[in-house]
Amino acid sequence: MFVPRATRFVAGPILTTALPTALASALALATVLAGCSRSKLGKPARSKAKPAAVLAPEEGSSAETRASSAATKLPLSSVEQHLPRVPSDLRWLLVGGGSDPLSNQISLAQDLQLASSLLPGRGLTLFASGPGAQVSVSLDDAPDGHTHEPDLPALERVAARFDTRGKRAAQSLASRAASELAALLGPPGALQVRYQPTTLTIDAPATRDHVLEALRGALEAGHADGPPLLVMVASHGERGNAPRESALSLWGGWSIDVQDVAAVLDGFADARPTRWVITSCFGGGFAELAFVGATAQQGTRSPQHCGLFAAPADDESSGCDPNPDRQQQESFTIHFLAALRGRDKSGAARTSELDLDRDGRISLREAHAWARIQGRSFDVPTTTSDRYLREVTRPFEVAHEDTDVVSEDHAVAAALARELELEDERAARAKLQELDRILADARSVLDEAQQTADDSYYALRVALLERWPLLEHSWDPRATQLLQQEAANILELLTDSELARGNLLAARELEEAADQHDAVRVARARVLRLVRAFETLRLASALKRRGGPRYAHYEQLLQCERYVPSP
């Protein structure tokens, strides 16, 4: 998904409504925390620390402060909320949301809402900031470009309080300048969204402590011979230096990586079986849970723990859409969840095509195969069995294809080979190499466009702050006064100057380059899915021919992934 000015990070306070004027609210958009994806490389050390706000009253606040908070009856923040008791008969755990308001897109809540309607028995849902969490939703009337003024009606209501026409005109001018400042200094996309409470039923916030506590509680309540726990995660992800360091971004900026989950599972000698569905970027890193300590050298974990993932450990997944129209969204998740209902994305019944083993039910693995066939995104889904298979075989082992081993991959290979007109693995690999070259060229164009856009953006920003340094301090009342006094001059610099025109042109060229790059990524992803399916069929057939405990373990992993989450 294209994000303008992807290399720019803006620090500042999270936007609240506690401002003296609507003008200050608009200007404060310039300092909302950026909602861009984060890498684990160089991530802040606070990612695993308990937030400073989680203090006992006597440690973190005075009696006067506590009395004041009680009097105002402020709702509890996410770090003050407790996790409900984990039911002894918990069947599923849903985790999701963004790490901050802007990245908490409505599609993440919609995904978990659909999942909760499909799953049987008792469950627990941890999402974003907890009950009543706000999700970001695209504005219906938001135009292309960066000049949308979402706060203009509120600003005009403030302006209407002024007695003279001149003051009203100045207020309107100031509101336009505030919107341009928010577009320049604020996080990408902030002016194109609004916020609304989600309709998802939420049990608690999706904080690091809550997620790990819920997982431990669910494992403690079960046993090795009992029903499995299904864990589905719909969040953003972080790439690590190694797959076992891949992480899930959780509310407030904290995260949980593969090693954290492995440590929980390793703590139970006879752990309750688990099934994982992770739709986050780099989620395939959690396939390392196939091994004790998330490390192949420590040996394999019980094959009663397995996962299905929207993306490999080294690539992003699609989705995370503020557009509430499900038919306009495109991701692995939307196809996967629709398939579990026996339907396609449009809602049409597809049970006969989805039910590959003809048992009258749709398994996780069958839904995963459907998403690989139907998805028109850059997702390249993978599984725990894929990871294990490539650990115990050599890359180019050859064997006569046995379609009975992995019927789902056979279905994927047949469908994509027919659609792409690539009849075998050799032809698919040749096409993949061709697309790799095209993608490399598109990437070069994108990198150049990004550098030009960054240079033009910083040139305009420097020119602005050289003249009006206070504009970088939006919470300062003097900045509001300055904005009212200098609105015309600020607007001239941000809209009519050579620097402004250069910045706008560079942003447009960057968006065009990103669109071209993403189009190649989508085409390449479909071919790569085909290559992976052919390869899996070949390697699985070779492993079956050898037989032994490794093949038996592989078969058990496949059965684990064929879990049917229906009543």
Shape summary: globular
Radius of gyration: 26 Å
Number of strands: 10
**Sheet with the most strands, sense and barrel status:** 8 strands, mixed
Structural class designation:
alpha/beta
Q: How confident overall, as mean pLDDT?
A: 85
Give unreliable regions as ranges. Answer: 1-70, 141-165
Query: Span from first to last CA?
Result: 36 Å
| Assembly of the depicted chains | single chain
* Proportion of beta-strand residues: 5-15%
Number of discrete helical segments:
17
Question: Percent of residues in helical segments?
Answer: 40-55%
Secondary-structure element string: HHHEHEEHHEHEEEHEEHHHEHHHHHH
Overview features:
10 strands; two-stranded antiparallel ribbon; alpha/beta; 8-stranded mixed beta sheet; 567 residues; disordered N terminus
Quick structural summary:
With 567 residues, the chain is α/β, with parallel strands linked by helices.
What would your notes on this structure say?
By secondary structure, this protein is an alpha/beta fold. Helices cover 46% and strands 9% of the residues. It has 17 helices and 10 strands. It has helices spanning 22-28, 57-60, 63-72, 106-118, 152-159, 165-185, 208-221, 258-266, 332-340, 351-354, 364-374, 384-392, 407-420, 425-467, 477-496, 498-546, 548-561; strands spanning 90-97, 122-127, 134-138, 193-197, 229-238, 247-249, 255-257, 274-278, 305-309, 382-383. The strands form 2 sheets. Strands 1, 2, 5, 6, 7, 8, 9 and 10 form an 8-stranded mixed beta sheet that branches. The protein has a two-stranded antiparallel ribbon with strand order 3-4. Strand 1 (90-97), helix 4 (106-118) and strand 2 form a beta-alpha-beta unit. Helix 13 crosses helix 16 (498-546) and helix 15 packs across helix 16 (498-546). The longest helix has 49 residues, at 498-546. The radius of gyration is 26 Å and the shape is globular. Residues 1-70 and 141-165 have low confidence and may be disordered.
